[in-house]
Each structure stands twice: as C-alpha cells, then as structure tokens.
Amino acid sequence: MTIALQTDAGLQAQLELARQVQLRLLPDRRCCFSDWEVAFSYESAGYVSGDYVDLIPAGADVFYFALGDVSGKGVAASMLMSHLHATLRTLLPSNRTIEEVVTTASGTFCQSALPAQFATLVLGKADRSGNVELVNAGHNPVLLVEGAEVEIIAAASLPLGMFCSTDFTSVRRSVSPESTLFLYSDGITESTDGTGDEFDQNRLAETLLQSRNLLPSELLETIQRTLIGFTNDAKPSDDRTMLALRWSPKGI
Fold first, then answer.
1. What residues does each domain of the chain span?
2. Where do the PPM-type phosphatase domain residues begin and end (predicted)?
3. pTM (2 decimals)?
C-alpha cells in the first residue's frame, strides 16, 4: 500500500471515529417528558455534521430543548458543534434565565471560533402546563401548529458568536393541547428538486398542517418521505435535523 493510500485510509478511519463520537452526543431517543411527546431526526450530509440537537431534563415538570447549526461544513463545524453541546450541557439545567444561558454560551463560542464562524440556535424551555419560552438566535423560525393554523416564530436575536457581547431576547407562548412545536435546520427547507426549486418554509408548513394529528415520530417520518419524493431521493447537500414537540396533557 502506498503512503498516499495509507494516509487516505487513516483519514477515513479518523472521520468515522469522529462520526461515532458525534452520534454519541445525540439525546436519548427514549426520552419522554411529562405531558410532552418528543421526537427528533438527525441526518448528516457527510461523515460529520455542524447541526446540533439536544433534550435536557430539569426535574419532573420542566425540560430544555435545543436545535442549532454551526456555519460551514466538515470537521471544523463539527468541532464547534461539539463545543456548543458541551457548553449548554454544562450550563443547564440552571436557575439562570435562558437569555442568560444563551448570552454565556455565545460569549464562550465567540472566544473559541474563528472570526467568520457563528452558530444559529433555538433554545427552549417547556413545562407540563404547556408554557414554552424560546430564544431564537438567528435560526430558522420555529413553527407552532395549533389547530388549523401555523404560527411563525421568527428569530429575535443575532446568531451566537457574531459579537462576543450580545443580548438575547426570549418569547413566551402558552400552547393549546395537542399543539406541536417544530424546529429544523436549513437543510430541510433548502433541499431542492430536479429544477433547483427549494422545498421552502411554505411547503414545510403545508406538510405540518396536513399531518397535524400525527404523533411527533410519525410527523418526522412523513416529512422525511415528503422530502424524498420532492428531491427524488437525491443525496442531501446539507445536514437535515428536525425536532417535534407535542403537548398532550393527560386528563384533558
């Protein structure tokens, strides 16, 4: 075997190891939270991903959820994703507000990243009464499906790492029973068909409405099938991550 082939094989082995480490960082798929049904999907376009998804319990009545996307692709993005994961896992659960948590995480990220690197992030907190608080730091809008309506909860703050000192603003919602919060990375809406048209937010919202009575796991499977049909099962050019949270209070 030539030195070049040995080097290539070694790099492939290291990338596969990095991929396995990233997969270990994913939250437990068996996670369940009082009165909330939760599911996520995570599909990397390459060996490693810059997408981030997490679920963090905070006692019997409260949990945190997060979905983000580090700028760029490849190993550098995956390293920063792992750094963001570790930072938030260290900070949560906490008595601090989620605005304060994101502010601290952004400052830490800024000190670790190169000047052109940043991360978009949605960090949320939900309780068993259907109360939700969100910080959207430059990420795609969160979609809230209630009845026959989809509310678009847009970003209210800059991405993490844009500036080392940044304030972040949260929004609050009290959701109705059987409502669904949907978070996603731009690999979902920027998937293209054979003509170059994007799946886009409108198609996603329409799919959510048509599937609003499904459980979160069934909803994600439906969106995945819809994307396969739309893209003609083409290999994704970007990471695709989704998180669905449905409030189903017992006794109502």
1. 35-247
2. 33-247
3. 0.92
